[in-house]
Amino acid sequence: MSEEWIPLTGLGPGQVGVVRQLAGGRGFVARLASLGFAPGVEVQMLQNFGHGPLIVLVRDTRVALGRGEAMKVLVEAMPHDQ
Amino acid sequence: MTNNQIRNQITVALAGQPNVGKSTVFNLLTGLSQHVGNWPGKTVEQKTGVYDHNGTRVHIVDLPGTYSLTANSLEERIARDYIIREQPDVVVAIADASALERNLYLLAELLSLPAPVVLALNMIDVAEQQGMRIEPHVLEAALGLPVVPMVATKGQGVRGLMEAVDRVSKNTAAYAPSRPEIRADHQAVLAQIQRLIAGAVPEPYPEDWVALKLLEGDEEITSMMRERLDEDRWQEVHTILMQHEDAILAVAGGRYEWIGRMVRAAVVRPRIGQVTLTDRVDRYATHPFWGLLILLGMLGLVFWLTYTVGAPLQELLDTYLVQAGAEWVRSALSGAPAWLVGLLADGVIGGAGMVITFLPILVIFFAALGFLEDVGYMARAAYVMDRFMHLMGLHGKSFLPLFLGFGCNVPAVMGTRIVDSPRARLLTILLAPLVPCTARMAVVAVLAPIFFGRSAALVSWGLVGLSLALLATTGWLLHEFVLGGEHVAFIMELPLYHLPNARTIGLSVLQRTVAFLRKAGSIILVVSVIVWALSTLPGGEIESSYLADIGRLLAPLGGLMGLGWRMMVALLTSFVAKENTIATLGVLYSAGEEGARLAKVLAGVLKPAAALAFMAVQMLFIPCVATVATVRQETASWRWTAFSVALLLVVSFTVGIVIYQGAMLVGWGV
């Protein structure tokens, strides 16, 4: 299944994905977790211009992430009409 | 419990994630009884206050706002250390009802600490606007602890909250909440660690909590247990920890599973896909182009307000309070010795007046800042600025402290604590003094019209632009060549926009202004008197004073910028407080505190090229002594402090010389 996991940066605006893996050090993962990220949670991309930071909606929270950080969040993209 | 009086006092700690309205709740409870200080031995702000409830005196301690209680940041350490070591009677966890699941993550952490918790469900109205319906009673039954719905901005729910706190504090035996557990696949490992550390955990740390923190990879707890356990035992623990390096996911996952069970029956929510006000505004406010325009507009508006409302008010205060005061002193002491009249009228009132006339500008600035913070815009500013900050090896979060620098460099340097990486933090600290603070801008606001008349606004904006351009260049150079490029993580919540709360903004303005007065009031007054004394001693003549001697020593350097010794002395005194530049010029050109006379004298003494050089140097010069002291405190290094001072000396004098010599070359303003 892991071939279908893509980095969060791969989600287009409005697209929904399910978080599958948080890569990176414990400190980084702990910070992501405290803002709502954990395996299994649904995230919706709000802003992604293909460059620069992006904004996702996770557990009713808008979280801004740098692209480097977003690369470490692996998601499974959901079909467009949900 | 020696007598009744003591039995009627309890201590309550307020915990909560950022942006949940915690300070609104705190202000509501404590009003003007609050005391703002620092956490013992730390530089993080600590607010305490009292609330009287049915004869019980409730001491309220506002913990720093944190998303979790891992030892990731100083704030998180302070919050959890307070609960573990001081053991408050009750902890109130304040949650934003409109993002309940994420907010309950902190509650999940609080529940494994040894203090009973009451959950304040704030912003119920916001949640309803988002289409969510929350049943506090259902949540209360699931959690097994009191849940109090609140709308703190409207003052709703305070009594209910304090009644719940009272109930819990009087009957701790009945407190038996549901607690989260680690995900099932890691329960055996957790139990194993618990067995290994049993008996070795120091008081007052709870054993199961320490075991959990070890699995989470908490650095503070890990090093504590490495010291406590004997070598063999530690090796055993360490081996298990190494085998389960991703255990943090099991801990966090377990917490969110528990949260899911808790809220399932209590929350009815709309389907995803609703477009809210925040989404509509953010379409522009966080847009790479429109967002930048909006940010520039905001900054422009703040400055426009400062100049058009603040400056006239400043003049009124100066005329009717400061000058009138000096006149009164002169006439009241007409028989007294000349030195005493001079000391009081020129030294003391001149200095105190400087502080007083600053208030309008500061209040406007703090109000604007408080407003932007309160409505939720500041995080957008950080987001929009992120791409630019990256050029300097910083991320958007460094923008916030630097932005604070427009008010005062001291909070800017202190505000760098929100920057997670120590290296990025150091860079932000080094750059902060290049942000023109209110005090420097006030000096510019006084000097620009004197020298440049109608073009004053243009010159002021140009100087701000110059400062920021130099900030960017210096940042890039330091990042590339001194500190060596390294990437910093950018993760930040963008809170929902909401209506500003006058009380919250008002109190923040009051606290910041009082803090400024405390610092400025004493320092500026003392320096004003010292400068007056230096300029009078030993003979009573300015031309032959000690201050003149120092200024003349620096005259060759000043000559490169077209500046005489008096201007150099004015720069020197600005080290103690920026506002002194004008006070010193006033004393040195014996124009006293009369603005018009000083203007006439100065305009006659300085040619435009030298005036421009002076204003540029003044903008970029070493920050005031309070800022330098803060830099030392925050970097904990005299070397970096000296580096910061030397850097600014080089930058400011280089720019001054380039401006003056450049103007000479093209034949402008000489």
Topology:
The complex is a heterodimer of chains A (82) and B (670).
Chain A: E1 5-7, E2 16-22, H1 26-34, E3 42-47, E4 54-58, E5 61-65, H2 67-71, E6 73-77
Antiparallel strand pairs in A: 1-6, 2-3, 2-6, 3-4, 4-5
Chain B: H1 4-7, E1 9-16, H2 22-30, E2 35-38, E3 45-53, E4 56-62, H3 74-86, E5 90-96, H4 100-110, E6 117-122, H5 124-129, E7 133-134, H6 136-143, E8 147-149, H7 158-170, H8 187-197, H9 207-216, H10 219-228, H11 231-243, H12 247-264, E9 267-268, H13 277-285, H14 290-332, H15 338-375, H16 378-391, H17 399-404, H18 409-415, H19 422-431, H20 438-452, H21 456-482, E10 491-494, H22 502-536, H23 546-553, H24 555-559, H25 565-573, H26 580-588, H27 595-605, H28 608-620, H29 625-635, H30 638-666
Parallel strand pairs in B: 1-4, 1-5, 5-6, 6-8
Antiparallel strand pairs in B: 2-3, 3-4, 7-9
Summed up, what is this model?
Chain A is α+β, with helices and mostly antiparallel strands. Chain A contains 2 helices and 6 strands. In chain B, the strands form 2 sheets. A 7-stranded mixed beta sheet of chain B has the order 2-3-4-1-5-6-8, sandwiched between helices. In chain B, strands 7-9 form a two-stranded antiparallel sheet.
What does this structure look like?
The complex is a heterodimer of chains A (82) and B (670). With 82 residues, chain A is α+β, with helices and mostly antiparallel strands. Chain A has two helices and six strands, in the order ββαβββαβ. Chain A has a six-stranded antiparallel β-sheet with strand order 1-6-2-3-4-5. In chain A, a hairpin with a 6-residue loop joins β3 and β4. Chain B is of the alpha/beta class and 670 residues long. In chain B, 63% of the residues lie in helices and 8% in strands. In chain B, the strands form two sheets. In chain B, strands 2-3-4-1-5-6-8 form a seven-stranded mixed β-sheet, sandwiched between helices. Chain B has a two-stranded antiparallel sheet with strand order 7-9. In chain B, α4 links the parallel β5 and β6. Chain B starts with a helix and ends with a helix. Chains A and B meet through α1, β3, β4 and β5 of A and α4, α12, α13, α16 and β10 of B. β5 of chain A pairs antiparallel with β10 of chain B, so a sheet runs across the interface.
